[in-house]
Amino acid sequence: MVNRPLDPISIRIAAVQERFQRLTERRLYYYNLPVSELRGGSRVVVGGREMGMYASYSYLGLLGHPRIAAAAKKAVDQFGTGTHGVRLLAGTLTLHRELEAAIAAFKETEDAVTFSSGYVTNLAIISTLLGRRDVVIGDKLNHASIVDGCLQSGAKFWRFRHNDTRDLERLLRRAPRSASKLVAVDAVFSMDGDIIDLPAVVSLCRRYGAWLMVDEAHSLGVLGQHGHGIEEHFGLRDAIDLKMGTFSKAIPSVGGYVAGRKDLISYLRHSARPYIFSAALPPPQAAAAKEALALITEEPERVERLHQNSGLFLSGLKSEGFDTMFSQTAIVPILCGEDDRAFEMTRACHELGMFVLPVVSPAVPEGSARLRATVTAAHEPAEIERAVELLARAGRSVGVLR
Length: 402
Ligand SMILES: *Cc1c(COP(=O)(O)O)cnc(C)c1O
Prior knowledge:
By secondary structure, the chain is α/β, with parallel strands linked by helices.
């Protein structure tokens, strides 16, 4: 091995090593923990020990559902474990088209297209639609994959203050008349659990002739009485040009989609580089996603239970005195302050048998490190009440609560 101790890459590697080594030595490192077993939807086995799961995105408790697992196995029997390549050439299966039709129906659009992850979907949408002469405007707290799509597009990239539509309007006014404008926002913000003010954003986009893209990673299956997402939540229809989402959260698979007008989806199918130059979704994952959509439609009571559980969790934490910021969903930040305090809070929770993880700088601003706890439809109300008690005990032991 060549030794290059002083070049910038080596220095960056060493800095990260050092940060995590210091955490490990102080027994504060809880990232990348291998889960060895699912025990129902609300418990997992980690390091041989069963723990309550409070860090899962499987909002509807569908991970491990026998019908979804059976659909995936059947797809392997029928199609094998991969495809013949990229979608545009020999990679498209009947299964992909069925999945896309199912999403289009669920999202009430003319068509939909899938990609191999949600991350790649955001890159694909923004970098394919926009170029150097265009303007893309995003919320300051947008997910990293939206940010990366904006950067990759080469468009002018402006950001407005979080969920502040007056600031958004200021930027829309500033954009040149001749430029195409895209407004890209998260439906539910993944670090904070709050919801974008969609009605106000929609009316601004209409007034200024901007396209609107909404990332529903934490909205599909979560918002709205039937889990159809943010439009259902606000009682809007046909308000969003590009409805993007993933198969990695409420839907227990992997992959991403965008739903919208037929011509727009066809444009992406023939122009998006991740569609043209990267392999199709594997058959079991496509089949699992399709089966999960069917289950959500057949069993809307899961969505109802999720809403009840998140309400119970949020109100319990607030009454213990925790600062849960502006969360209105199943993503519940528990503000800790400095990074170290969030790590200590994590350790206290793990010692009490709760699997939960911290988010620290630079993912969130310095001083606003937090636990990001989630609840799902799979939790029993009694489990949630117990979790609130344990969090309060942990909070008092590390000084997050007085
Ligand atoms: C998780 C997430 C993504 C990425 O989705 P993957 O399918 O996991 O790649 C995109 N946007 C948001 C808001 C997310 O939370």
